[in-house]
Amino acid sequence: MRTLELADLDQIYRQPGKLVIDKALTTVDRHGRSFIALSPFCVVSSAGADGSIDVSPRGGEPGFVHVSEDGRTIFLPDRPGNNRLDTLRNLLAGPGRIGFMFMIPGFDDVYRVNGRASASADPDLLAQFVEFGKTPRLVLSIAVEEAFFHCPKAIMRGRLWEAEAQVDRSTLPTLAEVIFDQLNMGKVPVTEEVIMADYKTQL
Question: How far apart are CA 192 and CA 202, in angstroms?
């Protein structure tokens, strides 16, 4: 089996249309601003200095990511997690390359933003992002380089929002059960209800 090379792509795929190229803007316009204001969830990708890649989910109340008045900057607060800090370490050790995929429950459209990130722990900035009764440890400031709406085909194929496509949670072990099994730690000592209740105190 021959491994494909870059030049092979032009033989396999047709060139993108003018509209697909032109729709990529260098700022978040009013439509992107409206989308982000309704989005409670995004996926963040980052690249580190050594080429390491990370993809991580982020969530909050709709509009938890803020957009500057001129649309050239977006701000992402960092909420409590597992303290691996994969995204933050990538960004601060590397060139700060970052990508976002914003989603709205029920919408098949996706809004994407790419840019360069820097971090700040300025108290005045942090105070603008109090949520769940907590102030973030830091806020990422992203200089927007590219912003555009992504077609809904992937979400439509995955039937992400269709009720009949939902999988019953009991189909797979809980996250705690998986980790305890992977690490040969035996049985989880507390119930899933206790674990979820604890998570809710850490939002």
Answer: 16
Regarding whether 181 and 126 lie in a shared domain, the answer is no
Do 64 and 21 fall within a single domain? yes
Cα(35)–Cα(3) distance, integer angstroms: 39
Separation of CA 4 from chain center: 30
pTM tops 0.85: yes
Q: Is residue 144 part of a domain?
A: yes
Summarize pLDDT for 24-63 with one digit per residue, the tens: 999 999 999 999 999 999 999 999 999 889 999 999 999 9
Domain hosting 190: range is 167-200
> What's the structural domain count of the chain?
2
| Residue written as token pair 């105070």 | 127
Q: What does the block give as tokens for 56?
A: 């991580």
pLDDT tens track for 145-157:
999 999 999 999 9
Measure Cα distances from 71 to 30, 126, 146 in Å.
8, 20, 11
